[in-house]
Amino acid sequence: MAGALWLAQRLDRPLVVDWRGQAQLRDKSLNYFVEFFETPSEILGVPVRYAPADVGDYSQGSPGARWVEPDEAARLASAAETTDEEFIVCQTFHGVDRLHPGPESQRFRFLRSFYRSIRPTELVREAADTWWYENCDGAFVVGVNVRTGNGQYYGKGMRYTGRVDISLFDDRERFLRKIEAACRARVRRLPKQIRGDFVVFYATDSAAMSELLSRLPGARSRRTLYPPPGSGDLHSFDDEPDADRRSVVDTIVDMFLLARCDGLVWNTSVFNQYARVSTGYFGGNHVHIESLFLRKNLEVTLGAIQRRLR
After folding, report:
1. What's the rounded Cα separation, in Å, for the pair 296 and 116?
2. Using CA atoms, how far apart are residues 302 and 101, in angstroms rounded to an integer?
3. How many structural domains compose the chain?
């Protein structure tokens, strides 16, 4: 949505937010965004409408609609390419990093401004506020976000193989020791007499990883409903009434709660981008999980050397 909004800014067009057909909701006619987020009529100077809206036909194949990939959208934004179609449809992932030419500081500024314009519905806000008050209020909180794929996406031969190194999870005890050490490092600069009294708020996409992270010192987690192992995160809990909506609320609340923490231990995921950007990367008090492992550091160093040699 941020990328589409930036494109709309550049082309002086309104934005239509149509998040219908999401796999996480049983009722595919619902607009996921409208159900769980406030709906301002304008964001960063761009007029915004929300589906279903009487704006015309932008379905795939419609003569008035051009469905674009990120590289096409970037060319349109830079005026390297033009279009006469009434609608430009961004259906695949159009992250700001894929459209905005940079520099990175300008991408950051835009994305931070965008995030400050996004607010959850009152129901979601109350769920977040209540849980935080009862579990974390007044404490120094270290956030932990571990994206596993829940049996999808990152395994060998899968669509995003290698994006997250899931082999790091194989030795569960070693992984847990690394995460605990990283959490303790986030409080190292606190006065000595209060370093031991911190809370770890963790968010993950897997019940098995949740069970492991629950053993961290001062561990707290709000989420209790996870998709079955091996199903990824695109699951609508068809056999449990209202479970799909509860699962979505759990997920969104976790995203916003990470941004209330004082430090972050994280692995690669757009899920924790909101927390990183909106807090200004926690004033530097954060660490990427893969950097905790010597093997991964060597891989990164060798890759950098190879790129320089080329």
Report:
1. 34
2. 27
3. 2
Q: Report how far residue 257's alpha carbon sits from residue 287's, in angstroms, rounded to the nearest whole number.
A: 18
Provide the 3-class DSSP secondary structure of residue 16. strand
Antiparallel, parallel or unpaired: β 263-266 and 140-146: parallel
In 10 A of CB 19, how many CB atoms?
17
Segment (H or E) for 134: helix 122-135
pTM of whole model > 0.85? Answer: yes
CATH number of the CATH domain containing 257: 3.40.50
| Residue-number span of the structural domain to which 298 is assigned | 134-302
What value does the mean pLDDT take over residues 98-111? 95
What is the C-alpha separation between 288 and 74, in angstroms, rounded? 29
Summarize pLDDT for 289-307 with one digit per residue, the tens: 999 997 766 776 767 777 7
Query: What radius of gyration, in Å, describes the C-alpha atoms of the chain?
Result: 21
**Based on the domain organization, do 85 and 231 belong to the same domain?**
no
pLDDT tens per residue, range 215-228? 999 999 999 999 99
Spatial CA neighbour of 15 closest among 4, 25, 24: 4
User: Residue 218: enclosing H or E segment and its boundaries?
Assistant: none
Are 100 and 141 part of one and the same domain? no
DSSP 160: T
Pair 210, 226: CB distance under 8 Å: yes
Percent of the chain with pLDDT over 90: 84
